[in-house]
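BACKBONE GEOMETRY TOKENS
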Amino acid sequence: MRRLTVLYDADCPLCVHLRHWLLRQRQLVPLDLVPAGSQEARRRFPALDHAATLREITVIGDRGQVYRETAAWIVCLWALAEYRPRAHWLATPAGQPFARMTVLAAAKWREALKGPGIPGRGPGPEGCGDGRCEVPGPPG
């Protein structure tokens, strides 16, 4: 695998924070971070269920592999120099329950941060239904 595309929810403060964190890490496999549901995501991956990518992290490999939820987080960590050994452990039967609990906890936190959304415009306080998710700058 030579490159991964991470589709993240640009309306989610937690997701944007994690995007910035991923970009600061030394990458063994380059990560392209693209807002889920955006025009760019739809152009790159027309066959994908883009509504689903707004509900759960989705990572696409350069050969068309699709990773969702826990597997997506593990493959993101696998792409990072410092976290590759941890990703290998999280993929084992011993590590999988920990990885799953972490993803579930993040989903609950994300849900609490995002709020109910605006009807007809997508999730989050400002929606992203027009495909032009605005990405805030790095924190601090």
